[in-house]
């Protein structure tokens, strides 16, 4: 069973980005993304790449991010 760890702080997001761990994103209690990689983040946004040419910007205030480890 995979381990889901919430990514709450900048250090958590940086670790997931450095290790290129897949993430899950929930927005307004709805599942919106599974398996993307964090490319970069700011105080207000997280940029996730799910395919070669697919970058999506998610708001840190309205989304929850989880690292997925097998």
Oligomer: single chain
Shape: globular
Our count of helices gives 1
Helix content: 10-25%
Q: Find the count of extended strands (DSSP E, 2+ residues).
A: 6
What's the pLDDT, averaged over the residues? 94
The helix-and-strand class reads mainly beta
Q: Give the CA-CA distance, first to last residue.
A: 7 Å
How much of the polypeptide forms β-strand, as a percent range? over 45%
Strand order of the largest sheet: 1-6-2-3-4-5
Extract low-pLDDT stretches: none
Give me the strand/helix succession.
Answer: EHEEEEE
Give the radius of gyration: 11 Å
Please give the largest β-sheet: 6 strands, antiparallel
What does this protein structure show overall?
This protein has 70 residues and is mainly β. The chain has 1 helix and 6 strands; from the N terminus they run E-H-E-E-E-E-E. Strands 1-6-2-3-4-5 form a 6-stranded antiparallel sheet. It is globular. The N and C termini lie close together (7 Å). The mean pLDDT is 94.
